[in-house]
Amino acid sequence: MTPSPVRPGPVYLTVLVIATCGLVYELVAGALASYLLGDTVTQFSLVIGIYLTAMGAGAWLSKFIEKGVARRFVEIEIAVAFLGGFSALILSFAFLSPRWFHPVFYGLVFAVGTLVGVEIPLMLRLLRRSVAFKDLVAQVLTFDYLGALAASLLFPLVFVPTLGLFRTSLLFGLLNVAVAFTSIRLFRDEIGPAGGLLAKAGLVTVLLLGGFVAADRLSGLAEEQQYADEVLLAKSSPYQRVVLTRNRAGFQLFLNGHLQFSSVDEYRYHEALVHPAFAVVPGARRVAVLGGGDGLAVREVLRHPSVEEVVLVDLDPLVTRLARENPLFLELNGGSLLSPKVSVVNDDAMKWLETETGLFDLVFVDFPDPNSFAVGKLYTKRFYSLLRRRLAPDGAFAVQSTSPLFARRSFWIIDRTIAATGFETRPYHAAVPSFGEWGFVLASPRPFDVPSDLLPGLRFLSRETLPALFSFGPDMAPWAEAPVNRLHDQVLVRTYESEWRKFE
């Protein structure tokens, strides 16, 4: 018996769903890899390349499916639902074993991509008896691309901020299962007895729903194994993975797996970042802090009675919300972001500098290390040129500049880039036990002496110890050949990766 034609409308909706699901799995893999491994450009490039190659392989393999096309299509949807739905959890647990992570990661991406690549060719074959070929190809490809558009918009703007990566992948796994159930009904004449397919789809549905309900517990288990200490909070924002841990000594903040501070010794870092600059501009009234959404640098700024206004610019609202609401943060930062002197702007710092019109006496730049091109742009000559426009003629700024001991060349590239922008620079360093020897660059558009005066009552810095911060031993000596880091050629990111890779 010849199978009866199917209504194309529901099938086109199915195409839209499977296209959205397919791209979401690709985005989940890329985002998770960038969280765990850093270097967003590299990770997404590899994921896209492998995924597209796998889709091509899947499309080629589809020609060998000659019998039972509808049944095979449903089976593939069930397989995609399982692998894609659990992909985030699988990769998170795989990361616990660095030796196996890359094979599992690339293997999973290739497997999901191959299955997704089979879907559309099979769908075209199922519909060819119902729709003219010309219209069929046009409609299927149209809905395929619309699904990709939906995924690219909804993934960063809706799903990741509200559900996180784990529940997002599980949700779209459930959508793939829904496609399987729908296809069983649409192509029932061609499939015939479907008891086995329904049982498989039902089992995967139960597993995905169970995973969705237990996502917090499962992701927490993975992160507890990844981090040595108790995980208090783990959330994904559109920009990064934020994890808060605690041990007997205090608590720690991690962004994309990289330690941002430990409550035990963060005062050393933040005192070193902030107070030498006030010795250069002692009467500073208007201050900007770029990055530093935890409020700890702002805490130190507010210790100076001359300060009348502080503008904090941080990209991630999740971090600044924690700094204003979380009891641990509030105790540590002294409620600095709740001060009437402080205004918080959640924006890209480079974009903010391009639109801001006011001048600042002091600017403190407290970004993460330049481990990706997205962050590396904030260490370029272009960025420092924009910053100069916002700096008062007799103002100054200080930049955290990674470790001059462990990443010596990276440190001196930052110093060289700032100097190439027309600033007078004074590089310095301080010992922060959680990080090791850490570096900073103090800069001003005018000549200035090494700071010699400090606010009294600091826990770490003193007038006696301050001069030693500006002295570098042979193992941290300046790199005479340091290049300038430019927006179109971010040599800093490549140098940073090569230097820190030695310690992984």
Structural class, by secondary structure, is alpha/beta
Instruction: Give the biggest sheet.
Output: 7 strands, mixed
Strand content: 5-15%
General shape: elongated
The share of residues in helices is 55-70%
Elements, N to C (H/E)? HHHHHHHHHEEEEHEHEHHEHEHHEHEEHH
State the name of the first-level CATH class of the largest domain.
Answer: Alpha Beta
- Please state the CA-atom Rg, rounded to the nearest Å: 27 Å
Q: Considering the protein shown, what is the CATH homologous superfamily of the largest domain?
A: Vaccinia Virus protein VP39
Sequence-ordered SSE layout with sheet pairings:
Layout: H1 8-37, H2 40-61, H3 69-85, H4 87-94, H5 98-127, H6 133-186, H7 188-191, H8 195-213, H9 215-226, E1 230-236, E2 241-246, E3 251-255, E4 258-262, H10 266-280, E5 286-291, H11 296-301, E6 309-313, H12 317-325, H13 327-333, E7 342-345, H14 349-355, E8 360-366, H15 373-376, H16 381-389, E9 391-400, H17 408-420, E10 424-432, E11 436-444, H18 466-469, H19 491-500
Parallel strand pairs: 5-6, 5-8, 6-7, 8-9
Antiparallel strand pairs: 1-2, 2-3, 3-4, 9-11, 10-11
Helix pairs in contact: 1-2, 1-4, 1-5, 1-6, 2-5, 3-5, 3-6, 3-8, 4-5, 6-8, 12-13, 17-19
